[in-house]
Amino acid sequence: MKNEEKAQEKYIEMKVLEEQLEEMQKKSQMVEKQLMELMSTVQSLDDFKKTNNGDEILVPISSGIFIKANIKENNEFLVNVGAETVVTKDIESTKKLMSKQVEEMTEFNTRINMQMQKMAMKASVLQNELKELIKESE
Predict the structure, then answer these.
(1) What tens digit of pLDDT does each residue of 58-105 get?
(2) Are 21 and 85 in contact (CB under 8 A)?
(3) pLDDT score, position 1
(4) Among 2, 29, 35, 103, whose CB has the most other CB atoms within 10 angstroms?
(5) What is the 3-state secondary structure (H, E, C) of the chain?
(6) Which domains are seen in the chain, by residue range?
(7) Distances (CA, A) of 42 to 22, 37, 62, 69, 80
(8) Cα-flanking dihedrals φ and ψ of residue 72, to 5°?
(9) How far is residue 111 from each of residues 33, 40, 62, 129, measured CA to CA in Å?
C-alpha cells in the first residue's frame, strides 16, 4: 500500500475519531448540566427543611416562571420513581435518592471523560503517523 493511501486511511480514521470525540463532549456537557440540576435539587431539599407548614414559597412552573404557594405539608414529597409511578418520601429518603443519582451521574461522567482522553490520545497518535506519512511522501 502506498504512503498516499495509508495517509488517506489515517486521515479518515482521524476525522471519524474527531466526530466521536465531539459527540462525547456533547454527552459530557449534558451530563454535567444534569448533575448541576441534581445538586441544586439536593440543596433545595436542605433549604426546604427550614420551612414550616403555612410558609409561602415560590414554586417553579417553567424556566424563570414561578408561582407563590403556601406549604401545606413539609414532611412528604411526591417522587416519580419511573414508569409513571409516584411514591411518597420524606426529606431524608428523597435526599438519599437524589444523592445516589448524583453519584451515578458523576461516575458516568468520569467514564465519559476517560473515554474522551483515550480517544484524544489515539487522535494524537494518528496525527503523528499522518505527519510521518506525509513527510515520507515528499
Answers:
(1) 888 988 999 999 999 888 889 988 888 999 999 899 999 999 999 999
(2) no
(3) 61
(4) 35
(5) CCHHHHHHHHHHHHHHHHHHHHHHHHHHHHHHHHHHHHHHHHHHHHHHCCCCCCCEEEEEEECCEEEEEECCCCCCEEEEEECCEEEEECHHHHHHHHHHHHHHHHHHHHHHHHHHHHHHHHHHHHHHHHHHHHHHHC
(6) 3-131 (1.10.287.370)
(7) 30, 9, 19, 20, 15
(8) -95, -40
(9) 16, 23, 32, 27
Pseudo-torsion of CA 100, 101, 104, 110, nearest 10°? -120
Q: Are 45 and 91 in contact (CB under 8 A)?
A: yes
| Contact present, 3 and 119 (Cβ < 8 Å) | no
19-53 residue pLDDT tens:
999 999 999 999 999 999 999 888 888 888 888 88
Tell me how far apart the alpha carbons of residues 43 and 68 are, in angstroms, rounded to a whole number. 20
Cell 414559597 sits at which residue?
57
